[in-house]
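wait is this the right file?? whatever heres the structure
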């Protein structure tokens, strides 16, 4: 998971990021709420960890911004020293999904993150099952993609990108997020790589409105794959 952490204590931020990265997540830390908000306008995150008391824009204000500006139901977990019941109620009422009081325990934090991820996006192993979308099907066991029953020849990355997009239909995905998810967290690639592969997939799989799909670029952000109604033949 790609996680955004709002924490103004550098040692605490380094510790939490180390825990998350060691558990297989990708953590980005922000000292200021305004910096996290700025990044969230152009990047995609799977979960937000918010401290309440940070300079300038507070974690509570960042939460309100997230719920007002991010369409996808991204989980938000508060991690703060504030432990009054009214504070917890305030955060949950404003849209937080869970609340932890510092000092944090590593295992509890990871368990709560995993629980939020399961609720937000029910897991499905990438090597199991068949994805069926009308004329398009993907056999995740044999790694075959078929259009109208005919196998489509694809490179390994084209296949992985196809599965990733189909598992995130309707979700706005930044180019950086796609690079990390498909090419790996350490991929040292230009985002034009994503554009090239998306263009190739769009053509091979006929992901166009007349075929019931819209795979569109979103200015200064990334891509969104959507299913659309096909106009009846005249």
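ok assuming it is, sequence goes like this
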């Amino acid at each position: 998971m790609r996680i955004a952490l709002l924490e103004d204590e550098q040692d605490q931020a380094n510790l939490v990021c180390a825990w998350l990265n060691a558990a297989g997540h990708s953590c980005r830390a922000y000292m200021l709420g305004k910096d996290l908000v700025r990044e969230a306008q152009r990047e995609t995150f799977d979960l937000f960890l918010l401290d309440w008391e940070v300079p300038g824009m507070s974690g509570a204000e960042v939460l309100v911004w997230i719920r007002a500006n991010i369409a996808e139901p991204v989980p938000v977990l508060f991690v703060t020293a504030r432990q009054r019941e009214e504070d917890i109620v305030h955060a949950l009422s404003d849209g937080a999904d869970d609340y932890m009081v510092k000092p944090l325990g590593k295992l509890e934090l990871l368990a709560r993150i995993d629980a939020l991820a399961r609720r937000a996006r029910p897991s499905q192993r990438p090597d199991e099952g068949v994805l069926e979308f009308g004329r398009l099907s993907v056999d995740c066991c044999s790694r075959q993609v078929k259009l109208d029953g005919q196998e489509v020849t694809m490179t390994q990355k084209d296949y992985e990108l196809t599965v990733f997009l189909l598992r995130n239909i309707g979700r706005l995905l930044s180019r950086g997020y796609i690079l990390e998810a498909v090419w790996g967290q350490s991929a040292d690639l230009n985002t034009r790589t994503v554009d090239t592969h998306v263009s190739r997939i769009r053509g091979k799989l006929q992901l166009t409105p007349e075929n019931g799909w819209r795979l569109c670029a979103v200015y200064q952000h990334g891509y969104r794959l959507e299913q659309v109604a096909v106009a009846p033949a005249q």
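The mean pLDDT is 89. so i think its the right one actually
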